[in-house]
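Retro notes, structure queue

What went well: the backlog is down to a handful. What didn't: a couple of records were mislabeled last round, so from now on we paste the full input next to the output in the thread. Example, using superoxide dismutase from Pelecanus crispus:
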Amino acid sequence: RFFVNFPSAKQYFSQFKHMEDPLEMERSLQLRKHARRVMGAINTVVENLNDSEKVSSVLALVGKAHALKHKVEPIYFKKLTGVMLEVIAEEYANDFTPEAHGAWTKMKTLIYTHVTAAYKEVGWAQYPTATL
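Corresponding output:
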């Protein structure tokens, strides 16, 4: 859904940036592999919410890699976490209480805050600081 809602995000993925069909993207092994890495990082954050140093460390690594190696504009983290929240709310509608929504909204903010802090730390020059 992320790539359907924000097709410009595909520019960062040479393996499937030209794919238009959502089913083709869904079947892409490279996309599935990346999705597993993303969810693994989020799982690590969730499992370590009581260890702020671990959370900071994991999200700093993600932020620095995406800033320096992949050159991804940080706004895409806000967009991705928004889509994730949307999908979780739909998939677990019966269990997605206001409390759960609040917790996932805090998680979304936590991820974006830490990732963008890493961008600032490495001196992300390709993107204006005001949008971080």
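Agreed that this is the format going forward. Reviewer comment attached to the example: The two ends are 23 Å apart (CA to CA).
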